[in-house]
Description:
Elements: H1 6-15, E1 20-22, H2 23-30, H3 35-47, E2 51-55, E3 58-61, H4 68-75, E4 79-81, H5 83-89, E5 100-104, E6 109-113, E7 116-122, E8 131-134, E9 137-140, H6 142-154, H7 172-179, H8 186-198
Parallel strand pairs: 5-7
Antiparallel strand pairs: 1-3, 2-3, 4-5, 6-7, 8-9
Amino acid sequence: MESFNRSLLVKKLYDSELSLFNIQTLKDLWGVEKENTLLVIIRSLVKNGVLEKAEKGKFYLASKPPDDFSLAHFLYQPSYISLETGLNLHQILSQFPYEITSVTTKKKKEKVVGGKMFIYLHLNPGLFWGYFKKNSSLIAEPEKAILDTLYLASKGERGFNFDEADFSRINKGKLFSYARQFPKTRQFLAYFKKLEDYI
């Protein structure tokens, strides 16, 4: 088996300024060719509290645990924070959801990591836009989070209580511009018409 200096490997972890790692990232960072050797090193660093396992093949520095949004993005890509979590972040909904909700172009998925539920709902690839980067996460703009929610509600995958929402901070011009890029199904238009009554 290849021989490696553990303290040097740990130093490379910290010097990388990364906090989230998959198997390939660690392999490239350390220059370890043999997969068995790599897995032995990772197991050792997890056992000694240097790395924490998020899920199979995904790890983070124990001394720099990621925020929920960065972890959500890391666990399932492509994805961005939206729906109830996005609406709460932008103070459109005041109640903080138990789950961390994201949208993805891949199939819908639920993951539980560290006792927290991460939910990913499928969005048509043509609607995967309207987000910004913050730290290591992608987050929907407030107007896009509203429209993503209405769109998925129109497909029966989400609910939306208009009475609990505060739309005072949104950019109405951007909202209407974005809405024009969504499929004009009867169900979506009905939800959007109801939204117009509240804004």
